[in-house]
Write a structure and sequence with these properties.
elongated; eight-stranded mixed β-sheet
Amino acid sequence: MRGSALILRSALPTLALLLVYALLLPASAAAQTAADEGAPPTPVRREILAIYDSRQEPRPDQTRIHRFAEMPLNYLGFVLSYWDVNAELPSAERTANARGVITWFRRAPPGSFYVWGLDQLQRGLRMIVLGDNGLPAGNTSLADANRMFQEIGFGLSGAMVDITYATKILHRDGLIGFERELDPVLPAFPIVGALGQEIASHLVLEHREGDLVLASSVVLTSERGGYAANGYFVYEEPGTGRTKWLVDPFAFFQKAYGAQRMPIPDATTLSGRRIWFSHIDGDGWNNVSYIEDYRDKPTVAAGVVLRELIAPYPDLPVAAGVIGADIDERYGTPEAGRQAARELFALPQVEIASHTYSHPYQWSFFESYDRKLEERLIGPDESEWKAVLGDRMRRIAQRLFPGLVHKGSESDVKVAGDDPPRAYSDFPFDLDQEIRGSVLAAEELAPEGKHATLYLWSGGAEPFQA
């Protein structure tokens, strides 16, 4: 089978039947058991309502819930539905079959959220509260929030420990230190009290101020949900933005939302088979390689990849995506780059793919394309990109094309990657050329009868609807 998936055709019907059988069997078995006992079958509650604030995180895919929490929750069998806290919150009928709620606010939500959340908890939903930047500070709103938090099993005093040199770890369990240990200098934290014997405090800090001793459960779970304070759930490395888990998210979410087993669709482990996915984007296709064996004989990078990484391994399928402009003679493409494409695409283990035509970095910029604005952003020389796009132009671009500009931190606005809108801009943007044209360009260098079957998105990989 040509392509990136190592699955025998003959195995596909069996795999499909096994998948259907495995997904239906638990439900059928549960239904039969319920019928035998005279009770109606109970649906599996797997939906989690992710409540986010569009004032701080405009789209669901920009939320920390999506970036960090959604994958572990999916792994456990849960499905997230995103809901903006600024819109009318879901009705009781809408949440009747939901499993729980998760929040990770950057600032305090509207007061109506706490009333709604308390009602949902009293109806039987579980709730996880992550972070404390959004927790209320005023006495009235704190009281409203605590009425909701108390249903989960914790309460906030309103006090915050900013200087932690007198703080020590009083208790921790196996959930803490999943990918990274806590720093010796602990982050600031709120004073959080665990309410009730059934609460599991996974990390408890002790802080002393003179004769005053304060204990705070900064990571906890209960039969009604869970809580984790800022700085004690995920670690973000200053400067690079790289992240590591401080808490084991799989164990944390499983405890907070209930540990019972349920059917989880998982085609990769159902029949003991695996799927191999392998692809290479065409970035740097015509760059001259400087690795040791090729320093004295200039060779384009695509040729090195061909000879060193793909041709010697005929049993490993791989999709190779080429940028259309990289093999377009109008852009001064070296013949060596085109020849490398011909040889690559001729290999039986290589699937032909397109990696766009002009390599857009931010697709949203081209949804309402303005050639004059693009020329102004690029300037007469692409090396002048950062100088041309000054603060004023950044504000204009942010207003016109929100996807082009993002926040690196709450106070720092910068152009995503400091890149121009696309890599090749000698000619005006043409969506048909970008999609269909790039596929045809790749196929022109392929053996007769072999076609491109995959399109690899570029840049932020967030194309607009068209």
